[in-house]
Amino acid sequence: MPRIRAKICCIASPEEANLAIGAGADALGLVGEMPSGPGPIDDDTARAIAQEVPPPVATFLLTSRTSGADIVDHVRYCGTNTVQVVRHIEPSEYTIIAAGLPGVRRVQVVHVEDDSALDLIDAYAPHVHAFLLDSGRPNAGIAELGGTGRAHDWQISRRFVAASAKPVFLAGGLSPHNVARAVATVTPYGVDLCSGIRTDGALDANKLQAFMNALRA
Known about the structure:
Elements: E1 5-8, H1 14-23, E2 27-31, H2 43-52, E3 58-63, H3 68-78, E4 82-85, H4 93-100, E5 105-111, H5 120-124, E6 130-134, H6 154-163, E7 168-170, H7 179-186, E8 190-193, E9 198-199, E10 202-203, H8 205-216
Parallel strand pairs: 1-2, 1-8, 2-3, 3-4, 4-5, 5-6, 6-7, 7-8
Antiparallel strand pairs: 9-10
């Protein structure tokens, strides 16, 4: 089995970034303003962290903005090398994003609520470098766009991976206790998590190491 990439999300400080990198993270997630959920930081903090992350570790800016122009402005300010769009935006907005951010990788989040998630593959695949499957509820009264701590139906995710020509990250309710089963079921390109390795909101070194050990095993 190829090596599964690990993206550690909700990074809140340079100290958390260094902890994740030291544990072997391939990518860090910096959460912008969100309607709900854990981990958002202000853009100045995200910018400061992104400037200090050494290659080849990727920096993902999670943005809830929906217009291509606004997303371009957000990423340019924060200076990350990847943008993670957490809403199901109009695919046509990616024309603006690609033109405005030619060196930035584009990742579209798909919230797996039911089989309709599979219908989004063809809509987004021409515009993005990768997908990320999560357990949000974007149409809830207060939108949930990540960090829910809930797992979704991994059988749907497995079908998504099989149907997608683009790499797929798996998120949603992952922990040291279930990541091996999740990887075996879904066979993703990478995994992404936030709440499953935190204690009282802070990145927990012991939980992080347990997760990395379970993933690499």
